[in-house]
Amino acid sequence: MQAIKLGKRWIGKEHEPYIIAELSGNHDQDLNLAKRMVEAAAAAGAHAIKLQTYTADSMTLDVQSKGFVIEETDSLWHGESLHKLYQKASTPYEWHQELFALANTLGLDAFSSPFDEAAVDFLDGLNVPCFKIASFELTDLPLIRKAASKGKPLIMSTGMASLSEIEQAVSTAKQAGCEQIILLKCTSTYPAEPSNTNLHTIPHMRDAFGCMVGLSDHTAGVGASVAAVALGAPVIEKHFVLDRSAGRVDAAFSLEPAELKALVVETKRAWQAMGQVVYGGSAAEEKAKQYRRSIYVSRDMQAGEAFDASNLKIVRPAFGLAPKHWDVVQGKQAKTALKKGTPLSWELID
């Protein structure tokens, strides 16, 4: 699978995991707060920030009918109308250019998830390096076709999509001319439980679609993301907030700055640790071999004295004969007088 150039960085198995900090609606429609979030994401070592580009009217209808109000009692947004929720969580279009420019000056890539075709054109006009399709939009094939037609890499979260729905999304993108596709395993619950995350889907999806597969992680902490990297995920997306206790719209399943820094560090360590199939020790371990055990003379001996457990011992370090020769040397005789602490060698045996 060929690496993909995304903004300033390459994504692929030969490159460290690409960490995306999703601002979502955690900026609480406060531009200064959004800027501080971008700065904090850069300071934590993230590689990109991501916005969401929509208006309440482009997402839903302003009605109170059944289905337009969140009824699930276990939802973070129980009782909210969809329209009011999206009004509260949306990122004003006029912020995008300023936030993207700030991110770029701090060394971050910056892009967004468009939620309608007009948003694709808007983001393309800002020269984003890629487009991200959210999991709930994976079945919006016209939206995927539009984003894929722009000649840029496409990242798509799969959420609750079936194999056939993912296949339709990937085929639609390819038919529109996009070959640089990254899929993200995702569990579309907020927050997501580790037991519902099913990371073994990552290598299966990679084999099924011939695409790189990362993780859009809605679980608490960084454990699921680190495990995903061990399974080959080259991209990790996590929601980000400056202070979870402030209760922003997605705060419950977002990382704070210190946690985001830990995510960057630990996913890189996991990627570095995967390495290759190696036996016999690495080059770095070579010096440590001297501290294995070997056979040593454990008391002073006279020439001609027979070797046995009273005068030999298997100890560290490893400059004598290997322990596997213990039975062979029993009863053999010393060629010369030997001092305690002498490493036994074949030359000393008569």
UniProtKB/TrEMBL annotation:
Alphabetically ordered keywords of this record? Transferase
The UniProt record lists the keyword Isomerase: no
Q: Report if keyword Transferase is assigned.
A: yes
Task: Please report the stretch or stretches of sequence annotated as the AFP-like domain.
Answer: 294-350
Which SMART domains is this protein grouped with? SAF (SM00858)
> Which EC number(s) does UniProt give?
2.5.1.97
Output the SUPFAM superfamilies linked to this UniProt entry: AFP III-like domain, Aldolase
Q: Which domain of life is it from?
A: Bacteria
The first-level EC class reads transferase
One Pfam family this chain carries? NeuB
PROSITE patterns recorded:
AFP_LIKE
Q: What is this protein called?
A: Pseudaminic acid synthase
